[in-house]
Structure formats: structure tokens, C-alpha cells
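Students often ask why inverse folding is considered easier than folding. One informal answer: many sequences map to the same fold, so there is more than one right answer. In these notes we will look at a single instance of the problem. The structure comes first.
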């Protein structure tokens, strides 16, 4: 199990980078979405899973190692919000580019310098 999770995270990151380097707008958007999922999954696994342990201290003599760490949880929530914002920004930006240029091929965008 310890080898499967990093392998899945690596596959998600590599698939997202592969899709972001393609020519199509749709593949670029899917790559950005996969990158957000990979980052969220990475931060979630870094924090670890603590079973049957409340996040609050109820007794004075509770071992700190048995409690859930709140920092990776906060980073995961922040990564989710940021990835949704980046995804929406990329979608709106590519929609505006498509309306201006009329093509979804990223290689043809180097000829758009003369568009006013």
C-alpha cells in the first residue's frame, strides 16, 4: 500500500503535465484539472490518516502523536480552493482566446500578434 499511493500520485502528475503540453485547449483544461487533483491527493497523503482520534484535546494527558495534524488539512483545503480558481481562470481565458482567434490549436496562436 505504501508503494501504490506514490505511484498513483506520480501517474496523476505525469498525465497532467503530458496533457498540458498538448496542442488542444480541451486537453490543456483537463491537464490543469488533473494537476489540481494530484496536488490535493499529495497533500492529503502527506498529512496521513489518523483513525479514531478527535482533532480536539479532551484530556490533559493525551499523546500528541495520536492526534490529527491540522496543517496538512488546511493546506489541502487551500489547494482545493486555489485549483478551482485556476481552473475557472484557464477556462475563461481559453474561451476568450477562442472567440478572438477562432482556433483551438495552440501552435497557430503565434500568428495572432497582428490581431487588434
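Output (designed amino acids):
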Amino acid at each position: 500500500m505504501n508503494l501504490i499511493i506514490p505511484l498513483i500520485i506520480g501517474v496523476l502528475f505525469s498525465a497532467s503535465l503530458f496533457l498540458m503540453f498538448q496542442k488542444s485547449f480541451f486537453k490543456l483544461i483537463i491537464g490543469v484539472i488533473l494537476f489540481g487533483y494530484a496536488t490535493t491527493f499529495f497533500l492529503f497523503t502527506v498529512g496521513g490518516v489518523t483513525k479514531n482520534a478527535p482533532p480536539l484535546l479532551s484530556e490533559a494527558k493525551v499523546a500528541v502523536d495520536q492526534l490529527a495534524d491540522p496543517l496538512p488539512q488546511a493546506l489541502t483545503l487551500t489547494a482545493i480552493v486555489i485549483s478551482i480558481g485556476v481552473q475557472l481562470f484557464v477556462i475563461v481565458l481559453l474561451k476568450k482566446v477562442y472567440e478572438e482567434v477562432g482556433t483551438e490549436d495552440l501552435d497557430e496562436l503565434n500568428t495572432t500578434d497582428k490581431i487588434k
